[in-house]
Amino acid sequence: MPNIKSAIKRVKTSEKRRLINASRKSALRTAIKTVDTAIDDQNAESAKAALNDAIKKLDKAASKGLIHKNAASRKKSRLTKKVNAL
């Protein structure tokens, strides 16, 4: 455990950020899985709605530095291709 006041604060803030990042990343994965399940069910309407939600979450995650912008772009592209194939 750190003794210096600034180090103690860094431990607290980094733990808060870690929990927020974990929550956002989990929500992102869930959104992507929702799109995949809609595609598996051959449900074009729900797949498009889920795709819009997933794209928003991917963009938000990339802007916050949670994932790399190219990774977000790649995931959006692959999901969109799958939905358009329905």
Please give a structural write-up.
- The protein starts with a helix and ends with a helix.
- It has 86 residues and is an all-alpha fold.
- The radius of gyration is 17 Å and the shape is elongated.
- The model has no long low-confidence stretch (mean pLDDT 96).
- 85% of the residues lie in helices and 0% in strands.
- InterPro entries: Ribosomal_bS20 (IPR002583), Ribosomal_bS20_sf (IPR036510).
Question: What descriptive keywords fit this protein?
Answer:
about 90 residues; about 85% helix; mainly alpha
Query: What is the terminal separation in angstroms?
Result: 54 Å
- Low-confidence parts: none
Which CATH class?
Mainly Alpha
> What is the total domain count?
1
What does the main sheet amount to?
none
User: SSE order in H/E notation?
Assistant: HHH
CATH superfamily: Ribosomal protein S20
Shape: elongated
The computed structural class is mainly alpha
CATH topology: Methane Monooxygenase Hydroxylase, Chain G, domain 1
CATH architecture: Up-down Bundle
What Rg is obtained from the alpha carbons, in whole angstroms? 17 Å
Summarize the structure.
The chain is mainly alpha-helical and 86 residues long.
Secondary-structure blueprint:
Elements: H1 5-40, H2 44-63, H3 69-85
Helix pairs in contact: 1-2, 2-3
